Amino acid sequence: MSPTIIVLGVVIVLAALLFSLYNGLIRRRLQVDEAWAQIEVQLKRRHDLIPNLVNAVKGYMGFEQDLLTKVTEARANAVTAGAQGPVQSAQAENALTGTLRSLFSVVENYPDLKANTNVASLMEELSTTENQIAFSRQHYNATVMQYNTAISTVPAVLVAGMLGFSKKEFFDAGPEADAVPEVNLR
User: What three-state secondary structure class fits 179?
Assistant: First the structure.
């Protein structure tokens, strides 16, 4: 065999490996993007439910306007932070979760409000959405872990930076966001 054929064979094998590696990294990056999009879907659902809940309880909670204002502001902050990435979104969503917990605990003090079927339905939907957000966050973080591991291990680490791949941030909403808001409408 001539040296030219051997060199050509090695170049072809290396090119095939590079293409395969690149395609695998692209696939993982797209999986991270898809997982983030799923979080955004759940957060949008949550953000859409909150104004309905606030409107439903507004008439009953006339003197709790400060709390309703805080919930509305926290929602607006969370919507804005969503475009800024996982870290900012997590912080804003954590603040929103805190205000929602306050709202849920205040609702407990209003028997007529707890008995209202619209409020009960909205709170149940919001509770379900909180669970879906938690599952989406777990899926996203697992996908980010796989991606970050892929770009940090040999052989990808040798070319990932040159090809524009960088580590992704985890969605860390903090330990207080792991608990689902308690809804007790009995």
Answer: coil
pTM recorded for the entire structure: 0.80
Residues in the chain: 186
Mean pLDDT across 38-43: 94
Report how far residue 88's alpha carbon sits from residue 90's, in angstroms, rounded to the nearest whole number. 5
CA distance 15 to 9: 10
The rounded distance, in Å, linking the Cα atoms of 106 and 68 is: 11
C-alpha dihedral (128, 133, 136, 141), degrees to nearest 10: -150
Which one is predicted more confidently, 48 or 119? 48
Find the domain containing 72 and state its range. 3-177
Q: Which ranges constitute the DSSP H helices of the chain?
A: 3-58, 65-81, 86-107, 111-115, 117-152
Q: How would you class 139 by CB atoms within 10 Å of its CB: exposed for 0-12, middle for 13-18, buried for 19 or more?
A: middle
- How many domains would you assign to the chain? 1
Question: Residue 81 is part of a domain; what is its CATH number?
Answer: 1.20.1440.20
